[in-house]
Design brief:
338 residues, alpha/beta, 7-stranded parallel beta sheet, 11 helices, 40% helix
Length: 338
């Protein structure tokens, strides 16, 4: 059974390709390599024994999208990761984000609705909730006005899919709202490869630990939390990847209750920035050089998932602890700096 994974050489995409191939799927990856490397194919092959089919392509080219689906008319499911994802960059260059994250989504859906049966998994985000009114965050929590063009593309992307499913019963879709994926594959063959200065906490921690960054800035210690720092739900990337396979199988086997469904992907536990730092220090046996600085605009105070729906309806549950995820991230960082 052939599955298309867009952005399949990226962080979450590559781990999902591994889990799909481990389950016996034939995987086709499309990636434009704007935030990834073709070397990731070697890592996937080292883990699974074979590389996926790879097509380097910019999905903003509508004709190329049409040509791809004509060539691969036997694709039975699409997992869509390909998107720009830096909040700060989206503020500076909103049109790039709207073109890349929404235009591409429309082009892919236009091809899928032509098929007799199509299955689509969308890479969404907990950013759609903004600062939620109460914790933990359920899928029924109101979607707040987005803090950035990036966050807005996830909100609007979900609306586009939902509206398309309403009038196309042949299309079944699941939006997976991730909280904070971290870590690397336990084989240390693939992991997170941020280009330039990391936008996320954990790679900045590991790069500081390995000496690539001089110091980590902790943005604020005066929030209304136990230790004053922001709280997030950090989930191992392999757990996130496995959820995509479970969601895809739900659609392929017709177990979905509606043709558009939404699930949170998290651990259900919030960890503060200082707790994550202490976890790193615990697994690495190193003291991290960090300092407390002023708050950063746009940061929500806390966000962690209610995972009841994913656990009971989807049949998926996160397995790894924060320490296990941090240990894999540290092992990966050390490997790629050798």
């Amino acid at each position: 059974m052939k599955i298309l994974v867009t952005g399949g050489l990226g962080f979450i995409g590559s781990h999902t390709v591994v889990e799909l191939q481990n389950e016996g799927f034939e995987v086709v990856v499309i990636d434009n390599l704007s935030n990834s490397s073709e070397n990731v194919l070697e890592g996937i092959q080292a883990i699974t024994g074979k590389p996926p089919i790879f097509e380097k392509m910019d999905l903003r080219n509508k004709q190329k999208v049409q040509d791809f689906f004509s060539k691969h008319d036997d694709v039975e499911g699409v997992i869509h990761f390909a998107a720009s994802k830096a909040v700060g960059e989206s503020v500076e260059n909103p049109l790039l984000y709207y073109e890349n994250n929404l235009g591409v989504l429309v082009y892919i859906l236009q091809e899928l609705v032509k098929k007799d049966k199509a299955n689509f998994i969308f890479s969404s985000s907990c950013t759609v909730y903004g600062q939620a009114d109460k914790m933990p965050i359920t899928e029924d929590a109101p979607v707040k006005p987005a803090e950035s063009p990036y966050g807005n593309t996830k909100q609007v992307g979900e609306e586009i899919i939902k509206d398309t499913c309403k009038v196309n019963p042949n299309l079944s879709a699941i939006a997976l709202r991730y909280f904070n994926p971290i870590g690397a594959h336990p084989s240390v063959e693939i992991g997170e490869l941020p280009i330039g200065v990391p936008q996320n906490l954990v790679p900045f921690i590991t790069q500081t630990g390995v000496g690539l960054r001089e110091q980590l800035s902790v943005f604020g210690d005066d929030y209304p939390t136990e230790d004053g720092t922001c709280i997030r739900d950090y989930i191992h990337v392999v757990d996130v990847a496995k959820a995509h396979v479970v969601a895809l199988q739900r659609l392929l086997n017709g177990r979905n209750d509606m043709n558009y469904e939404v699930f949170n992907l998290g651990t259900g536990k919030g960890s503060s920035v200082l707790e994550v730092i202490h976890s790193f220090e615990n697994v690495s046996d190193k003291k991290l050089n960090y300092k407390i600085v002023d708050r950063r605009a746009g940061d929500v105070i806390q966000a962690y998932a209610d995972t009841e729906k994913a656990n009971s309806v989807l049949g998926w549950k996160a397995q790894s602890t924060l320490d296990e995820a941090m240990k894999s991230a540290w092992d990966w960082e050390q490997k790629i700096r050798r």
